[in-house]
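Suppose you are handed a protein chain with no further information: no name, no annotation, nothing but its sequence. What can you learn? This example shows the usual starting point.
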Amino acid sequence: MVGHNETGARGGAMTQQLERGEDAPTGQIARAMAVLEAVAERGSSTARGVAEATSIPLPTVYRIAQELIRAEYLVHLRDEQRFALGYKLHRLAVGLHDDLGIPRAVREEVHGLHRDLGMAAYLAIHRGTDFVVVHVSDSPQAPRLSPLTFGFHESPHATAFGKAGLASLSAAEREEYLTGGPLHAHTDRTVTDPGRLRRELEEIAECGIAWEHQEFVPGTDCLAATIKADDGMLIGTVAVSAPIAAYAGRARHVEDRVRACAARAGRIYRLGGHHH
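A reasonable first move is to predict its three-dimensional structure. Written in structure tokens, the prediction is:
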């Protein structure tokens, strides 16, 4: 998953694939992104190091790097003969952070949920069916789900976060997802029957709680509660994950605590508590 109070779990995936010797990316934008990710992965890098990491020919790496330097997305450390990330990327990161807007009080709520329940706790920000996990509170005794990269965003029907997002759609949008093609099963418990999932999403829309019982990772259950704006639009979710044994005899208590945390987080967002 993402690091403690880090944004999305998607960054670096392209670089990791390329490091495993897969084909170089094609297209100017894909190659430029691969160069940026290779440099970011190492803090700084030589052109040869980028070429080895991405499988992009060395002359092409130099050409792309020069274009990125002119655009201020890379800088050239001349004494070290290395490339490093440019300041314009910081400006983009600040913009994303401000846009996602994670109030300190909400982060503290999520941490309190982890501490009180002894489960990994998460905050996700939603935009339609898409979502990004922006804050995680966990510990060695209660580790986060791992990994949250492969299939996590592509299979919202298999996760508590994703189900909450699907349930927030209009009936027509929900139906488009349900009938748009076969639903992928990550475990033998993943709900792939459109009729059954349709009923489940209707219940989630009604109660604001999404459960996922070993549907994404065997042996692990997840629970997400929705955070709503004044107009009812889904802002995000607060969620927990833990081995199924951790819920024994206290599933209702866990649900009540997650729901209460989401309600408090919603009040903070609605009151404009964006203090980072």
